[in-house]
């Protein structure tokens, strides 16, 4: 059982949420982390941390995870007691709502923690400590091996998206720390890849300045996007795929065309990690 405190760790978020807002993140988790969920000898435990004023994202996450492993159980955790009470009518087999924060007050080790739009209100200097605390609740590395992104065992997915889920950027971490950064978008809404900069997670958003790796990555992505302009006649998806192929010549990507077709690209963390 996780250690309990008399007061949850963290501060309340604004609580804004919308149905289907986190669909891109959910689908990526189910696809990339699904094999690890299925290998779990016990029913996997997932957490939607800071789900907000309404429980839509927790309900949706469980449904999508169960396409990967029908045994999955999910806990929605909120630091505001009123939000937990409002979510209680939506509980059903495999879905529960609890009062808590970064201590993650659920039994045992966790296969997945999703923390979407939670750390935006914190200072950049606080992010590492929060990551470490949450990663400490994750299941240990899987003896069967890591997934294609290098993740082992339980997974923390922490990031940010816009209000209706068109643009996301998230970091994936395991107990060893951050592994990858994923950029995901509705391609029809994109003018250029650097439009995603406004959705960088807290660990990176203040690093989008000259001299920092994430700034160089977005600069190169814009250049590749411009060079792929002739592919626009075939559609935004084909232009994106061509741009990402060009990007792969200089940046260590952790995915391939199957994910690129979804309007995604995943980069290894060490290539984008803040300097200093």
TrEMBL record:
GO terms for biological process: methylation. Keywords: Methyltransferase, Transferase. One of its GO terms (molecular function) is methyltransferase activity. It comes from the Bacteria. It comes from Streptomyces exfoliatus. The keyword Ribosomal protein does not apply. The lineage of its organism: Bacteria, Bacillati, Actinomycetota, Actinomycetes, Kitasatosporales. This is Class I SAM-dependent methyltransferase. Residues 1-20 are annotated as: Disordered.
């Amino acid at each position: 059982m996780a250690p309990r405190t008399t007061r949850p760790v963290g501060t309340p978020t604004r609580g804004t949420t919308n149905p289907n807002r986190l669909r891109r993140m959910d689908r990526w988790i189910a696809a990339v982390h699904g094999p690890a969920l299925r290998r779990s000898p016990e029913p996997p435990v997932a957490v939607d941390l800071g789900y907000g004023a309404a429980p839509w994202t927790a309900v949706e996450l469980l449904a999508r995870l169960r396409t990967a492993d029908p045994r999955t159980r999910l806990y929605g955790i909120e630091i505001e007691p009123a939000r937990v009470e409002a979510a209680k009518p939506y509980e059903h087999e495999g879905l529960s709502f609890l009062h808590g924060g970064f201590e993650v007050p659920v039994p045992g080790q966790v296969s997945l923690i999703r923390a979407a739009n939670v750390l935006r209100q914190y200072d950049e200097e606080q992010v590492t400590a929060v990551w470490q605390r949450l990663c400490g609740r994750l299941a240990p590395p899987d003896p069967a091996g890591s997934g294609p992104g290098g993740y082992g065992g339980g997974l923390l997915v922490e990031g940010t998206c816009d209000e209706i889920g068109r643009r996301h950027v998230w970091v994936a971490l395991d107990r060893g720390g951050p592994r990858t950064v994923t950029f995901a978008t509705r391609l029809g809404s994109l003018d250029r890849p650097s439009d995603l900069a406004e959705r960088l997670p807290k660990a990176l958003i203040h690093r989008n300045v000259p001299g920092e790796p994430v700034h160089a990555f977005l600069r190169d992505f814009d250049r590749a996007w411009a060079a792929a302009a002739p592919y626009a006649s075939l559609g935004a998806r084909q232009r994106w795929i061509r741009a990402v192929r060009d990007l792969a010549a200089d940046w260590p990507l952790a995915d391939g065309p199957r994910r690129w077709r979804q309007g995604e690209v995943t980069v290894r963390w060490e290539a984008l990690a803040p300097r200093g």
